Amino acid sequence: MQNFADQCLDMARAMLGQNVSAIQPDGTIDPVPGEASRQDEPGHVALALGEFYRATSDNQFDGSDLVDLTARCLTAQAFNDESYENGLGYAALGLLSFGPAKERNPVWERLLDPTRECLDRRLLSRTDYDSHFQAFNVAKAVTRFSMGLSKKDETGKIIDRFIERVQQTSSGGFIDDNPRVGIGGVFDLYGPMSLVFMRQALQLHANIHLRDRKLPSLRTVAEKYLRLLPDLVRSDGQGWIIGKSIGVYGQMHCISLILQALRDGWITSDKEGLYIDTLRRLFQYFFLTYLDQDQGFLVIRDGERDTRPEHTTRMANFDGVRYLSQWARLASAIGKPMEGAVTTRKAGGRYIMFDRGSKKEQGLFLYQNPESGLQLQLPLMGSGKSGTSDYLPFPHCPGIFDWPVNKYLPIMLPELTIDGKTFIPAFYGKRCVTGLGLRKSFYFRYEQPELITTDEEIVSGLGSVKVSWTFADDKITSEFLFTVKRQVQCEKFRYALAIGSPHSEKHAPMTFALGEEGLGCNVEKDDFQAVWQETEVVTNELGYRTYWGNIHYIQTLVRDHPLVMRPGQQYRLTLSFSPDVGMLDS
Q: Within 10 A of 381 (CB to CB), how many other CB atoms are there?
């Protein structure tokens, strides 16, 4: 992997060269035009500089003193609002990257006494979290002990608490990042991010014996995600695409997870070729989709795509420097050739259970069909009341089945307004089943004994719904069967489709795109008697972009006058799709 390591370092240098001048004398970060800086950015920058130093051993870059720049960022982060503990966690590992003890750490020597005292106090002060923020507590504990600021090491206790909560909130052993908001069960990309970050923190721990004791605990959770990746990563290399904060981070976190696992020997020798091929495709997609190869910086938003507002362009670029430096270091440690057997894909559907309890079941259905080209992810999980389409249970397949960033639309799902509340068959299920149907089709089915609102409030005594998705060759059929327990009035019914495309310039070869025939949508049964509205053209509207490309049209099926729903009667909505799946060859 030496060539891969060298390529990553070259990219890290180019990216750092485009962004290092944004570090201001006071350690704050100058945003790109049109964006606002965030208070946790100095911490991200400090860790990026620390990882670059670990990978190169250079404390100078393009005439700039990395030690001085890191000290500035640490100072700015230390005196920031204390609510930005994520920035402090990044800053802590950035400090530790330059040396395991304050007597041998050039950045610590450069800090003024008030900054040292503030860091000492803030690294000690910790709020107990049941989300990915607990990973930042691990970083703070590792740094405080390793730097000699405390003789008591709390790292092991915090990791144990993290693992215990994973076991409490997920019977499948996955990370619920927001168990207390909404219905819970937010199994998104922050799970892998937490594992990558904590593994990185343990690698910097001064006590290697504690690191060795805690690695098996992290491995039990990390392996859950590692087993997902070969089926989750698309043939064009697109990675994690469900939940928020995906896009470029859906590539970077997955790459780091695989490289850490290869370095630690968590992947058996007979599977190494499979994971190296998955890694190669993830990196190619990252390189071709998000990197401006002429200027050497990451582009996460432009006229054709967007991302969440809390991810600034400057933060993404420094995170890119951090990850590229980390990949170079890990690849050098692995030392194996970047050659893996090309993955042979077979048609199939697979359901991964995230959590199963008496009140709810949640999971992820993965389907792929090499003949039609379809490969999709269908999540059934909570959203933490995010109010976006990222978490909704429809076939996620950018380029074919698209949805807008940071916006809510009932994509491929019926939305009913009853008694002033809006309901959607999402967020949880009961009796989730998957299997092989007629004519070698695959199905995924679940029920909701009680309807749930878009705000994730389960309303008892109103009604129920049964959902069935069937995948047969190039045809997808969805069926929603509603019943009510008392007579109610459905004030409005809505169902939406988004027609988009990959980025016109920045995309991987053979990436998915709709052909001239489009989605091939057919309404086979509609007891709501809804009507397709006039197609809404949104090509030039900034609020309708995806993480990967643009959305051009919104098609909406609407019933805008009341429907009296009676108990004992079934209300069925059945739609089928035969998408014209194409691939861009350049």
A: 28
SS3 state of residue 440: helix
- At residue 372, what is the residue type? S
Grouping H, G, I as helix, E, B as strand and the rest as coil, residue 393 is: coil
- The rounded distance, in Å, linking the Cα atoms of 28 and 23 is 6
In this structure, the number of other CB atoms found within 10 A of the CB of residue 175 comes to 28
- Residues whose CB is less than 8 angstroms from the CB of residue 74 and which lie 6 or more positions away in sequence, other chains included: 27, 42, 46, 91, 94, 95, 107, 111, 115, 119
Q: CA nearest 78: which of 124, 48, 16, 123?
A: 123
Give every CB contact of residue 304 below 8 A, 6+ residues apart in sequence: 503, 504, 545, 549, 550
202, HSE (Cβ side, Cα atoms, 13 Å): 25
Token pair, residue 437, equals 């149907």
pLDDT digits (tens, 9 = 90+) for 33-44: 999 999 999 999
Which run of H or of E encompasses 135?
Answer: helix 133-146
Interior/surface letters 111-135, b for 16+ CB within 10 angstroms, e for the rest:
beeebbebbeebbeebeebbbbbbb
Task: Fill in the DSSP letter of residue 561.
Answer: S
Please tell me the distance from the alpha carbon of residue 171 to that of residue 214, in angstroms, as a whole number.
21
pLDDT digits (tens, 9 = 90+) for 325-337: 999 999 999 987 7
The bridge status of strand 442-448 relative to strand 463-472 is: antiparallel
Q: Where are the alpha helices (DSSP H) in 335-456?
A: none
Share of residues in the chain with pLDDT > 70 (%): 98
- Range 184-194 burial, b when 16+ CB lie within 10 A, else e: bbbbbbbbbbb
Tokens of 436: 């092989």
65 φ, ψ to 5°? -90, 110
Strand-pairing partners, residue 493, are: 416, 559
Rounded to whole angstroms, how far apart are CA atoms 399 and 387?
22
Report the C-alpha gap between 117 and 98 in whole angstroms: 19
Nearest partner of 165 among 132, 201, 202, judged by Cα? 132
